[in-house]
Specification:
The protein is mainly α and 161 residues long. The protein has 2 domains: 95 residues, no CATH class; 65 residues, no CATH class. It is built from 7 helices and no strands. The termini are far apart.
Length: 161
């Protein structure tokens, strides 16, 4: 395991912290987060998950890890902070098998392709497309502006032309 990867126990500690703050918000302590809106306003990932004060040991997250992970749950925003996609709730299933794939692999390898090949105007060239580069260096503001410009111009054309 590389130093920048999340230790499997880190996620269980995150789940423990979420459950501690949010499990009973729906009136039942049953290991499930059903009051997600209430949890979103109650649970503070940066404050409620234990921060490592020394070497990582699987019982905490480093400040750097927390700063990197927190935006995943905040939903996508433009460069000036305006949200354009839904937030993702914290829940007790974060330590479940497959979550790391959906949270860390899919955005780079699959979602980037959807954005680059479907929503970009003009679309990215599939033969030259590099998902990681697109995600890490692309400008959502430029993509949204281009998309809106093309949509507006196509809506202003007569349908029979």
């Amino acid at each position: 395991m590389r130093d920048n990867e999340s230790h499997p126990f880190d996620w269980s500690k995150t789940c423990d912290a979420v459950l501690k703050k949010c499990d009973a918000l729906d009136g039942v302590t049953d290991g499930m987060i059903q009051a997600t809106d209430a949890c979103e306003s109650t649970f503070d990932f940066l404050a409620d998950v234990t921060t490592c004060t020394g070497e990582r040991n699987g019982k905490c997250l480093t400040e750097e890890q927390k700063q990197a992970i927190a935006p995943i749950f905040s939903g996508a925003t433009t460069n000036d902070g305006k949200p354009f996609y839904a937030t993702f709730p914290f829940d007790a299933g974060l330590a479940s098998p497959g979550v790391a794939f959906w949270e860390f692999t899919v955005p780079i390898k699959l979602d980037s392709g959807a954005a680059g090949l479907i929503w970009s105007v003009p679309p990215q060239n599939p033969k030259e497309f590099n998902g990681a580069d697109f995600v890490l260096n692309g400008s959502i503001d430029d993509m949204l502006a281009s998309f809106m410009q093309k949509m507006t111009s196509s809506l202003n054309r007569p349908w029979n032309s």
